[in-house]
Amino acid sequence: LAESVVAAACSRVGQRVLHLDRRSYYAANWASFTFNGLLTWIKEQNEEPKPEEVKDWSSLMEEGEELIHLANSDSASITNLLVFSFTSEEEEEAPNTTEEEKAADEDAVKESSETESADSKEEEAGAAEKEDQPAQTEGEEPEADQPLPSSPSNPSEPVRKKISYAQLVKEGRRFNIDLVSKLLFSRGSLIDLLIKSNVSRYAEFKNVTRILTYRHGNVEQVPCSRADVFASRQLSVIEKRKLMRFLTSCMEETEEQAAYNGRPYLEFLRNQQLGESLQHFLLHSIAMVAEDTPTEEGLASTRHFLRCLGRYGNTPFLFPVYGLGEIPQCFCR
């Protein structure tokens, strides 16, 4: 992303820019892939790196020119990449799983299975969520292909159709998977840059429709707007009033807030007579800070969340429709 922004800035002031990229895709380790593209990327990452040949280019250099060797350093940041299958055992066809099993077997020989790449977990979890299938896992042990007890289906919903690996590959172009998944606040330096540079014309963004949190074994919707607060069934009438009063009061800095500088944000929330539900929402889903985060930082994060509300939709977050890899690509255009 950084190099793409610099290239766009140079082009904007009249410079001619030449892009040199080792890969056939944008964004390096922040890329977005279709499912088939992801499998190809995994295969490339599992291949043994070839030793770099340092050639002598001195004969091609002219007076005043300096040769700079570009080290392929970012490839070393991805290690111990494992593949897990979330498809159902009864619908899974043997010929279709050989690619994943082979990749998993190769990794098992290369590395111990105790540590896993956080990237691969996010990618495969994203694939499972986007295809709305039961979360199942396939590890090194053959008996690990059992449904996880932590992901029961909601009894109020119809039974979800199980999907096979062949179907996942066939439908793999219907969704994208980010290697690193992040959301954009609707206000901030990146959004301002996208608008000012007209790069936003090349991309399509979608407002995240709702924010969920996991609490006491249940997935609950976090009330963001005033309408959400009053429509929430998880909060009592008293809690709704307390939440609205707190969100209104925290937008301005007061002496009471300054008295808690350096003290944990959770302590400040408790002393505001907020219940456990409101503390959880404010700490983990609105401010998105740790329990021991200083109060001034927690309040700053809460204010930023509230300032971003309503600019483009019901939540403060935007996401590129075709994945975060689109942003560097748009700057390159």
Automatic annotation (TrEMBL):
Entry annotated with the keyword Chaperone: no
Location of region: Disordered: 88-160
Biased composition (Low complexity): 147-157
InterPro entries: FAD/NAD-bd_sf, GDP_dissociation_inhibitor, Rab_escort
Compartments in which it is found: Cytoplasm
Keyword terms, alphabetized: Cytoplasm, GTPase activation
Stretches with biased composition (Basic and acidic residues): 99-133
Main localization category: cytoplasm
A Pfam entry, by short name: GDI
Record carries keyword Metal-binding: no
Top-level taxon of the source organism: Eukaryota
Membership in a protein family: Belongs to the Rab GDI family.
Protein name: Rab proteins geranylgeranyltransferase component A
Lineage: Eukaryota, Metazoa, Chordata, Craniata, Vertebrata
